[in-house]
Structures are given as structure tokens and as C-alpha cells.
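Worked example 3. Consider a protein that binds FE2/S2 (inorganic) cluster.
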Amino acid sequence: MTIEISLQVNGVSHKFAVSPTETLVDLLRRRLGLTGTNKDCGMGICGACTVMLDGLPVSSCILLASQADGAAVTTIEAIERDGRLSPVQEAFLRHGASQCGYCTPGFIITASALLAENPHPSRDEIVEALKGNLCRCTGYKRIVEAVESVARQGGPT
Ligand code: FES
Ligand code: FES
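Given these inputs, the predicted complex is written out as C-alpha cells:
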């Protein structure tokens, strides 16, 4: 049994026939080759698979592709603009907020969604927004500082 769905992914419209159990992260990685979205826990705990669904960050490992029917999905591949890193990506580099990098796409998607909704979040608001993203390497301090630096600029995400 398959289900027909329509998805806009990074601005491009697609139609897929998906199985009832196919997750959004698997569709993105296997069918579209968008491997910047990582999959780790597969249980909605770590945030490595975070993408934006209609502008909001979601864990794509616990979202069925069929549940995303009709939505607009943004992955890390669409965060840079015209071949230039976004301000959040630049800030991660500047602050050394990425080490092994496995968690980084998820953090950048979550931070970008936060800053698009609230360009000047407080430190507490940043920490709250990022609480669903786990990092085994950095200790979080540099990640929060990177997002704070963009919040202080209030620039585009
Ligand atoms: S892989 Fe989706 S939350 Fe961990
Ligand atoms: S930089 Fe390695 S898990 Fe976050």
C-alpha cells in the first residue's frame, strides 16, 4: 500500500508515493539525497534530524512522510543563500560552535527558525528553543553564544 503525497522541499515541488511507515527523514535522505539532515536516535530525542516544516522546527525521524503532505520543508541545504553561509552558519564558525558537526545541521535549523520568528531572543529564550537538540562535543556554551551573537545583530537568518 502506498500513499500519494505532495511536498515542497527547499522551494521545489515534489510528488511521492510513500509507504505508511516511511519517515520524513528517510524520504529526504534516501529519495532526495539531502543527507545534511542526520538521523541518530530515531526517537525524537536528539534533534539531529531537525528540519523546518512550514517554518517550524520538527524532528523528521518521528514524522511520517504522509503526515507532511502539503507542507513546505526546509533542510540545512537551503539555509545558505546564493552560495554564502547564513549569519547563523557564520556565527557557528566564528564561535567554534561545531566540533564533530553531527548535531550542527539540527542546531542551525532550530536556531534559524527561532530567529525568523523572534529576531532578538534573550539567552533564556535561546536555551529554551535549543533544548530539543543534543550535542556530545561542545558543552553548548559556544552554540548559545553563536546564536546570541546573531540575535544581537538582529540580521536575517
Ligand atoms: S534522529 Fe530524530 S530526534 Fe534523534
Ligand atoms: S559537535 Fe559533535 S555532537 Fe555536537
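Take a moment to read the result before moving on. The longest strand covers residues 3-9. Strands lie at 3-9, 12-18, 50-53, 56-59, 72-74.
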